[in-house]
Specification:
This protein is of the alpha+beta class. The chain has nine helices and twelve strands. The C terminus is likely disordered.
Length: 323
């Protein structure tokens, strides 16, 4: 994954080294004099307020620490002095396996926390941990014995958006907490802005951005043979295509289908209860009820149907037979 020159320039002016006592880490700007980093990097300050937290921007800038909330290993830093800087945009992206990314920070092993280093990584697995929810694999050949200093580094997609924050070294690789994991209620409560339209930056195999790039490539290849004025709108196809790529919409359809399924199961149980109520009220029929099992096993089976049965044809068969 290659970053554009303009993107690299922004990253260079938005990501800074951090020091708290003997701990070194990375932080990055997300607003006016507001940064994000990992909580464990400033733990000495949280236990002892006399231990200062500094970021290096050509000079040491003192920062105040504010808890993000919950059990997240992420905190907010507030600069006590304004220094011109760039700001990175957060993106609440869904997990895409094999998505190419970069983690950019100030490792202790290289440059003594003074040089900005990037590692090429790829999403591998989504997990459920308090400190991180995505595990990655490295794809570069840079030899590192430890990842000290990378804590708090932003995880960047090819458009320069931050989709996660590096928090842990996991079995000789890395784990990060996704911005999506932090959005509600934590970032919302702190009024930290983030983008939600991750489809526009989805470069996975069938992602919207990948499709757009393929279209642009085809238009360029067509040259003068392509004329935008000759475009024919196919609304029906557009709707189907949107439904195909809209994963959130698909989830809503699944929930609606589950709602109908539960309604059907409830209706079946209601019908069975009504039949049993009628049988109880009909004393004459109740006297014959013991012989019903011997005379008609199928009708008897209707009253013993499992609540988990979802065969509508089976239900209709017994309704028809009883009536």
């Amino acid at each position: 994954m290659h970053l554009k020159f303009e993107t690299r320039k922004i990253l260079f002016n938005a990501i800074v080294p951090l020091q708290c006592g003997s701990e070194h880490a990375t932080a990055f700007f997300v607003g006016e004099d507001t940064l994000l980093t990992v909580r464990h990097a400033v733990i000495d300050h949280l236990y002892n307020k006399e231990t200062p937290v500094f970021i290096d921007m050509g000079e040491s800038i003192l920062c105040e620490v504010e808890e993000l909330g919950g059990h997240n290993d992420v905190v907010i830093l507030k600069c006590t002095k304004h220094i011109p800087h760039e700001t990175l945009q957060l993106l609440a992206a869904e997990f895409n396996e094999d998505l190419e990314l970069k983690v950019i920070g100030y490792p202790s092993e290289l440059g003594n926390n003074k040089d900005l280093i990037s590692l090429s990584i790829r999403n591998r697995q989504q997990v459920h941990r308090l400190e991180y929810d995505i595990v990655v694999i490295r794809e570069d050949t840079l030899a590192l014995y430890s990842y000290k200093g990378f804590s708090g580094s932003p995880v960047i997609n090819e458009f320069g958006s931050v989709i996660g924050i590096m928090t842990r070294s996991v079995s000789q690789t890395l784990g990060y907490i996704s911005i999506r994991q932090l959005t509600s209620p934590w970032l919302d409560k702190k009024n930290i802005p983030y983008k939600q339209d991750h489809f526009s930056e989805d470069t996975s195999t069938y992602g919207r951005r990948t499709s757009q790039n393929q279209i642009y490539k085809a238009i360029k290849l067509a040259g003068n043979r392509y004329n935008p004025k000759l475009h024919q709108d196919i609304s029906d196809f557009s709707v189907k295509l949107y439904n195909f790529i809209n994963k959130d919409g698909f989830e809503n359809v699944k929930k609606q289908c589950e709602k109908y399924r539960q309604w059907f199961l409830s209706s079946k149980r209601t019908f069975r209860d009504e039949v049993q109520k009628i049988l109880k009220q009909n004393e004459a029929y109740k006297k014959e009820f013991p012989s019903l099992r011997e005379k008609d096993d199928e009708l008897w089976a209707f009253f013993e149907l499992s609540e988990n049965s979802e065969e509508s044809s089976e239900r209709d068969f017994y309704i028809e037979k009883f009536t």
